[in-house]
Amino acid sequence: MAAVSGKVIQHVLVAHCCQQDRKLSTQYRKDCCIPYRHKLLPYIRGKLAWTDISTMQLRTFSKFNRGIVYCNAAPSATIIPSVDKGVFLKLQNGSDIRGVAVYGVEGEPVTLTEPVTEAIAAAFAAWLLDRKKPDPSKRLKVSIGHDSRISAQKLQDAVSRGLAGAGVDVIQYGLASTPAMFNSTLTKSEDFLCPVDGSIMITASHLPYNRNGFKFFTDAGGLGKVDIKDILERAADIYKNFTDEGLRDAERKAAESVKRVDYMTVYTSDLVAAVRKAAGNVERPLEGFHIVVDAGNGAGGFFAGKVLEPLGAITSGSQFLEPDGLFPNHIPNPEDKEAMRAITRAVLDNKADLGIIFDTDVDRSAAVDFSGRELNRNRLIALMSAIVLEEHPGTTIVTDSVTSDGLTTFIEKKLGGRHHRFKRGYKNVIDEAIRLNSVGEESHLAIETSGHGALKENHWLDDGAYLMVKLLNKLASAKASGVGGGSKVLTDLVDGLEEPGVAVELRLKIDQNHSDLKGGSFREYGEAVLQHLANVVNSDPKLQKAPVNYEGVRVSGYGGWFLLRLSLHDPVLPLNIEAPSNDDAVKLGLAVLAAVNEFKALDTSALNKFVQV
Ligand SMILES: O=P(O)(O)OC[C@H]1O[C@H](O)[C@H](O)[C@@H](O)[C@@H]1O
């Protein structure tokens, strides 16, 4: 517990206005809300400073706001509420930290407050100091970047205070991509204060606008689950011991020592150099290509102006390049159907050769060919496998668990590689590819249907932009060898990939408060559902369990397959079904339904609906 002085007002107001923004016109958002939000209502540790000008601001908002504006004026000294270790631990999301960073969504209280963030950053610094054990004369350097979220600035400031207070040097990159942050631990450049010893990306990837979170990197890659738990435990202890004096000291140290560097310039020029090199050191190898980019108002807008244009491509018709943390156009996620429809429309309307789409922090990507054919999910994996297997014949391609049977046939029969279908989760596939190499099985590509992908040649960096660079290399080399312009060369590479007639993903929720859980965790309950399903499948002659499987229950039957597994993070059992026809898919769905029906805490309504179609 610690007292923080200053006259403050809870920042419910801004959050409420953010919600209103979505309903109001773009013009209002640009003209009225954004310029004022930062200028007139500075945040002070999770609160808004209540200044004279803020009163005017309140009036401006009220004019447009048809709902209630909540302003909880606080006394001149507020207490930082105590936060249990359990609350800190709940912020873990696999190998990331995720929480709610702004008010505005009913039932979603803010969990990633500024003091909590400050404690997490201080904990990362302590973790890093333990790992690196620097010579006492040397200070560690940590870079911080963020995506386009509306909470980015306040969290960046809190992270800076946490790091500076813990005695490490802080370098802010501003708007950046997740892969660029990892890259900053590898880049060698004194001018850009690289390599840094550690890096923090502030992002919640494609999640809604009110969320935010952190990804951490060292030169060994992204931190894993065990390290994240360690950091959150340390953070809870640090938080408990916060004092007003300590917080002020951190604030002072951050104000004195934070440096700012335009690191994205280094990162983008590396991407440009990679394409030029692959094209035989041609300066503008994409001359004549028309490529549209959809950044979904995330951090990926740089790809059009800083990568494609210097390489000679025309990028007119690119959309949603400007950062907007309310994501007013579509969810920035290549797995999202509406997002894929948006980039497909842009390709067709502009008669472009290729479309490229990124998620908010640019670690996921997908493409669309000249004819409007989506190159995402299994097709993107097939395409990347074709490119990588040309360079490394026979290599193993590691993918997530929801990949299709057709993809295995394509990789193994057509391309002559090995398909190692592993678990869901980008970190899982990357770690598995690294492990295979360490035990003597060569693997050059780890990739998920979500659009995450990493190559051995690129330090196993999970980088959506680099995946797209590999496609650009292919376009440039096809043009140079006279095969032709356009993106047909990419379309041809996935020729022969068998596609299912029907492919669905249904997400079955587990009600964590249901008495059927008998006080156990949703994971235990989910495991029990899976075990029961596996037993039922064993006694059904029409169904065969996959002989090798690393996650959930994967079963073949009726010419198709299904996979029921536990979500990596949520109390959900995602069910993927692929089949030649809808009838076959329904038969598979009915088999699952019959087996799971007795589990009353499992919400099967999505499956019920599917089998009734
Ligand atoms: O298990 P799910 O709920 O389907 O989520 C799985 C996904 O979670 C996160 O978004 C990870 O970044 C992805 O790598 C992973 O594929």
UniProtKB/TrEMBL annotation:
EC top class named in words: isomerase
- Which part of the chain is the Alpha-D-phosphohexomutase alpha/beta/alpha domain? 96-235, 286-370, 377-479
Keywords (A to Z) from UniProt:
Carbohydrate metabolism, Glucose metabolism, Isomerase, Magnesium, Metal-binding, Phosphoprotein
Record EC number:
5.4.2.2
Pfam name, any one:
PGM_PMM_I
State a single Gene Ontology molecular function: metal ion binding
| The organism's place on the tree of life at top rank | Eukaryota
Extract the CDD domains matched here: PMM_PGM
Q: State the protein's name.
A: phosphoglucomutase (alpha-D-glucose-1,6-bisphosphate-dependent)
Provide the species name.
Sesamum indicum
Q: Which gene encodes it?
A: LOC105161098
